[in-house]
Structure formats: C-alpha cells, structure tokens
Design a protein that fits this description.
alpha+beta, 40% helix
C-alpha cells in the first residue's frame, strides 16, 4: 500500500523485470488508486458547486479498498456538513467492484471450501478475505434465489459419480 502517483516509465521497467500486474504491490495498484482519488475529488468539487447547503471541503478520510488489482489505502474527500455521499466508492464500501464477489461465488458454486477460496483469492489478488465476508457474499445470492442448493436424494446411500469418479456439484 504505497502512497505514490503512477509512473509509466517505472511501471514498464517493473513489468519487464517480471513484477506482477495485480496484487498488493502490483504494478497497476498505484494507477487504480490515483484514478479513483481523482474521480472522488471531481465528485466533491461538482457537489460543492451544485449544492444549496452552505458547506465546504473538510479534509479526507482514509480507508483500505480491495480491488482485483490489489488493495490500497484510499483518501476519500469529505465536506464539513457530512452530506456529501460519494458515488464511485460509497461511505462504507470496501470493494472497488463486484468482480471479486463474482469470483468468490463461482469458486463457491464449484464446491470449494471457504479456506480454499481464501487461499485462492490471496494468491491471485493479494487480498485477505475473512470467512464472514465469504459467508456474506454467498448468503446474499442464496437468499436472492440466484444460487440454489440442489435437492438430491439421500446422498449417503445413493452416491453418484461420473466416469472419472467425481461426484456432481451440490450447487446449480
């Protein structure tokens, strides 16, 4: 989680030396951070120029944001009245996009355990995801009906498998 602006020449050198694009210290992380902070700055400036409330800038709050390119510390602008609600990254939002949620769901649907999902996400993106976060993500879809548990007959007596000896997934 470095606090620096993106340098294209340095990024090219790092890429040529074999450094990863995604991840906590990935090449793209400072660029994503810089673009997100610029978008938030433009949002508050637009808000302050169009609002009828008598308010002004009041510094920044810091929060750790997770994205598919790694995690970074983001400076979110705030106003004195507290009425400014950023649209790019909402006040309590800690993930930059739904891509991570979708990847976790696809791994869960394939039958991976929470621990395996945690290891996989940490390995690919350099992100630490808790059991609670994974449960929240999967429960969100189980409750909405988008991901359904398959109703199988008594699996202890009726063990089915394909020609490779692999049991079918429990989720459809």
């Amino acid at each position: 989680m470095r606090n620096q602006s993106f340098n294209f020449d340095e990024a090219l050198k790092q890429l040529q030396s074999g450094k990863n694009l995604p991840g906590t210290d990935g090449i793209l992380t400072p660029l994503i951070k810089q673009l997100t902070e610029a978008a938030l700055q433009a949002e508050i400036e637009h808000y302050l120029s169009t609002t009828s409330i008598d308010t002004r800038k009041n510094g920044y709050t810091r929060k750790t944001v997770k994205s598919t390119s790694g995690q970074f510390e983001l400076k979110t602008p705030r106003d004195r009245s507290g009425a400014f609600e950023p649209q790019r990254i909402k006040k309590n939002q800690t993930k930059l996009s739904e891509d991570i949620d979708n990847k976790i769901l696809s791994l869960f649907a394939l039958g991976m355990s929470y621990r395996d999902i945690q290891k996989h996400v940490a390995e690919l993106y350099g992100l630490e995801i808790s059991d609670g976060a994974i449960t929240h993500i999967t429960d969100k879809l189980l409750c909405s009906g988008q991901l359904k548990l398959a109703t199988l007959p008594d699996c202890s007596r009726n063990s089915r498998s394909d020609s490779f000896g692999v049991n079918p997934p429990l989720y459809q």
